[in-house]
Amino acid sequence: MSATIIDGKQVAAEVRAEVTREVEAFVERHGRPPGLATILVGEDAASAVYVGGKQRACAEVGIKGFDHRLPADASRAEVVALIERLNADPDVSGILCQLPVPGHLDGVELTNLIDPDKDVDGLTVASAGRLALGLPGLRSCTPAGVIRLLDAAGVAIEGAEAVVIGRSNLFGKPMAQLLLERNATVTIAHSRTTDLADVASRADILIAAVGRAEMVRGDWIKPGAAVIDVGINRLAEPPAGRSSALVGDIAFDEALAVAGAITPVPGGVGPMTIAKLLDNTVQAARLQAGED
Length: 292
Ligand SMILES: Nc1nc(=O)c2c([nH]1)NC[C@@H]1CN(c3ccc(C(=O)N[C@@H](CCC(=O)O)C(=O)O)cc3)C=[N+]21
Prior knowledge:
Bound molecules: 5,10-Methenyltetrahydrofolate
Number of domains: 2
CATH architecture of the largest domain: 3-Layer(aba) Sandwich
Shape: globular
Helix content: 40-55%
Largest sheet: 6 strands, parallel
Strand content: 15-25%
Number of strands: 11
Distance between the termini: 46 Å
């Protein structure tokens, strides 16, 4: 038996096609496109690649991109002033501050200055609270992308045992809440969990977001489970038999033999994060225009 590989690039392309149609309809109604402002502080190479990818994706679907780059030594006041200006700019529907920010700045504090109605990353206290209370709001992109992947793969979420490994505010906590909203039975496991392998092996849906290359082994996986790999670990060179130096948190080849369905790295969750960011930008623009 070999698992079905869930093609994140393919599903992301479907989401982007839907977003493209929504953008065209928005332009018809309002005579202007939704806009997404990205803020990148400093010269971290990986962050620059991600932000570049987000801006390129905007252009592809017709969203207007505002690409703000600040030097690594930018002051808190400069970043705050930029966020406040973008909050007040009617052409800017969504704002994201790429994380991490340089050490003299506080990424959580800065993110929180974003108007919740423009919080397309879903990372402000207000957005987290709306999610926790089941109120409408912008949902964080990576967890929302995972739900879309599970749906696309035909995985039943309701009633399933879901185990999320990782408890970050960026992913693990919102992921657990979205699964709960869909009536899964949810466990959040983490670095202090006693017998992680045993907890993982109960999962019908196993989601790993720990940032440790290939930590989840094949014998942790329940036969037939849906396995979602949120890890992005960059190795010095591609492992034997692989073409990419990016590996996830799951030992892919081992898992492939046991799981029912699995996302690859690259080409799994990553492209969905960007697709959901575009989707959130259109939703934000519609809300700000008084629609829905
Ligand atoms: N405010 C904020 N929002 C974020 O959403 C955010 C962030 N900060 N900081 C960093 C992480 C990381 N992240 C990724 C997005 C796309 C891919 C992606 O498209 N990955 C491709 C491969 C890309 C490559 O080759 O490096 C894939 O998995 O197939 C990966 C990672 C968004 N993040």
